[in-house]
UniProtKB/TrEMBL annotation:
InterPro entries attached to this UniProt entry: CoA-transferase_III_domain, CoA-Trfase_fam_III, CoA-Trfase_III_dom3_sf, CoA-Trfase_III_dom_1_sf
One cellular component term from this protein's GO annotations in UniProt: mitochondrion
Keyword field: Transferase
Source organism: Lojkania enalia
GO molecular function, one term: succinate-hydroxymethylglutarate CoA-transferase activity
Pfam families in the cross-refs: CoA_transf_3
Family: Belongs to the CoA-transferase III family.
This protein's name: CoA-transferase family III
Keyword tRNA processing among UniProt keywords: no
Length: 458
């Protein structure tokens, strides 16, 4: 098989003024792509670096905005990939204007936004920002040159809309046959809805999630976060990693078609399986309760709410003992789960009547060590300041160059060897434009200034 020219591995260098590590650009003498390894054959590849950051040496061209796409590329960045984020040179990612809240600027520089929006900050760490307009030949040329030096491209434009800029998979795969091109859309590249714009709440409604979410006798509601966007971002990461793995042996890239609609249907999991197997109408909304297990839900306490799970006969017995009602274990209405489901309304009512006599904290202390599942229903600040969340290092403070110290949610998966982490804060709009053009594409200062004069970059 003919070897393909690929970028050589990068090294990690300290980020000035912040103390955090940022990924630098490769040396100019690029090495030969080794399809069996997925990195370069260069001796410059640091195996210790790959051990800590498994995607070190992988470069991603990020042409996504808002949530699903940026969430995908942020995960790839956490794992060590170098992410070059393409943004409109003046507006940037849509979410830059999705405040408040915003992290206010502290460097005294006046800008079009009051600060960096919390929404934008949530999904754009470990990235470099290139402010670039590609509605002209000069901008398209820059992107074509970047494609030659990238392993992965992730985009979330409507199907077919990038073809008019010669940025579609068919065109770019000829420029770089090993390119992995991931398209994130609402409804996919095919099918009767493929031309529809994809928004999380619409897909939640269309693909069943909203129908099964909400109180038993209440209206359908959306999930509190854009869970379909997040699920799609994670599925896209899986697709990219699978394609990178396949490329080790083939040397070839491929086109990944990831859609919110498909991922939402897949995420119906056992609910979808029940419908397929039974052929019957679903059982509707259950609030915090479970369709086939009782008691298993959130109940009111004296001050807030607590979730408890008497998921089987043994756990139900523990609950009865702990709330001071051991006689309920032998009550003929409740001795089996089937009977508890049948008498759900009665059992839920009398359990809640007891739980309302004490505070959530008092019940937590009573249930501690019992082996029964239970949990306080926390608000967001309660979660972010939760002792277990902090002990698991899920909140990290980083030094933003224009906003000062900010807190971000950390990468959630822990490894015995790898160390995915926040190496650089979410970039300012166009923060790395000159750096990318000069150090990666070999543009000189005159060429960069010419692109600025044309308003192609910023």
């Amino acid at each position: 098989m003919k070897s393909l020219l690929r970028p050589c591995a990068r090294s990690i260098v300290p980020r000035a003024a912040s103390g955090f590590l940022a990924i630098g650009f490769p040396a100019r003498n690029c090495r030969i792509w080794n399809p069996r390894r997925g990195l370069t054959t260069s001796k410059e590849v640091d195996k210790k670096l790959v051990e800590k950051l498994p995607l070190a040496g992988i470069r991603v061209l990020d042409m996504t905005r808002v949530l699903a796409g940026p969430y995908c590329t942020q995960i790839l960045g956490d794992l060590g990939a170098e992410i070059i984020k393409i943004e409109h040179p003046t507006r940037g990612d849509d979410t830059r204007s999705w405040g408040p809240p915003d992290a206010p600027y502290t460097d005294g520089v006046e800008r079009q936004f009051p600060g960096e929006s919390a929404y934008y900050l949530s999904v754009n760490r470990n990235k470099k920002s290139l402010g670039l307009s590609f509605n002209n030949p000069a901008g398209i040329s820059v992107l074509h040159k970047l494609v030659q030096r990238c392993d992965v491209l992730v985009e979330n434009y409507l199907p077919g809309s990038l073809s008019k800029y010669n940025l579609d998979y068919e065109t770019l795969s000829k420029i770089n046959p090993s390119l992995i091109y991931a398209s994130v859309t609402g409804y996919g590249q095919t099918g009767p809805y493929s031309d529809r714009a994809g928004y999380d709440v619409m897909v939640e409604a269309e693909m069943g999630l909203m129908h099964i979410t909400g109180e038993r006798d209440g209206p359908p509601v959306k999930v509190g976060v854009a869970v379909t966007d997040l699920t799609t971002g994670m599925y896209t990461v899986i697709g990219v990693l699978a394609a990178l793995y396949a490329r080790r042996d083939t040397g070839l890239g491929q086109w990944i078609d990831a859609s919110l609609s498909d991922c939402q249907v897949a995420s119906l999991a056992n609910i979808a399986s029940s419908g397929l197997i039974s052929g019957k109408k679903d059982s509707g909304r259950w609030g915090t309760a479970h369709a086939s297990v009782v008691p298993y839900r959130a109940y009111k306490t004296k001050d807030t709410n607590i979730a408890v799970g008497g998921c089987n006969d043994k756990l139900y017995g523990i609950l009865c003992d702990k709330i001071g009602k051991p006689e309920w274990k032998a009550d003929s209405r409740f001795v089996t789960n089937a009977l508890r489901v049948k008498n759900r309304d009665t059992l839920d009512r009398i359990i809640e009547d007891v739980l309302k006599t004490k505070t959530t904290k008092e019940w937590l202390d009573i249930f501690e060590g019992s082996g029964m599942p239970y949990a306080a229903v926390n608000d967001i600040q309660g979660t972010l300041n939760h002792e277990h969340v902090l002990a698991r290092n899920m909140i990290e403070k980083v030094d933003h160059p224009s906003c000062g110290p900010i807190k971000l949610v950390n990468h959630p998966v822990k490894y015995s060897r790898a160390e995915p982490k926040i190496r650089s804060p979410p970039p300012m709009l166009g923060e790395h434009t000159d750096e990318v053009l000069r150090e990666l594409l070999d543009y000189d200062e005159a060429q960069i200034q010419d692109l600025k004069d044309q308003k192609t970059i910023a």
